[in-house]
From TrEMBL:
A GO MF label: DNA-binding transcription factor activity
UniProt superkingdom: Bacteria
Keywords: DNA-binding, Transcription, Transcription regulation
Pfam family, any one: HTH_5
Protein name: Transcriptional regulator, ArsR family
Record-annotated HTH arsR-type domain positions: 1-89
Entries under InterPro entries matching the protein: ArsR-like_HTH, HTH_ArsR_DNA-bd_dom, HTH_MetalResp_TranReg, WH-like_DNA-bd_sf, WH_DNA-bd_sf
SUPFAM superfamilies noted in UniProt: Winged helix' DNA-binding domain (SSF46785)
SMART domains on file: HTH_ARSR
Amino acid sequence: MDYETIFKALGEGTRIKIVKLLSIKPMYVCELESVLEMSQPRISQHLRILKQAGLLNMQKEGQRAVYSLKEAVFEAWITGFTDFLRQPLETLPEYQPEVNRIAAIADDPSIAICKNA
């Protein structure tokens, strides 16, 4: 799972609000405009980012679009991220440089000074 993309998509307050609103019920863009008191282009930009991150469904109804939350994606993402946090660092190959540096700081006199200051 691409945690970085999801965190970037959720890293803006308006997008968090949109996610919360869509967790209650699917909504048309015009509904989001009214509730958030924002222009259609701004709402559409936020929706595009959330959709590209794989967090939203979009269903066309003629000229209009209804957006809804991909709840299963959120649940899988939260579970997956929790599992990721619980994994021992040593088991993650992409973190090997950090594992090595953590081991090295135990003998670093400047770290000992910093910790005892």
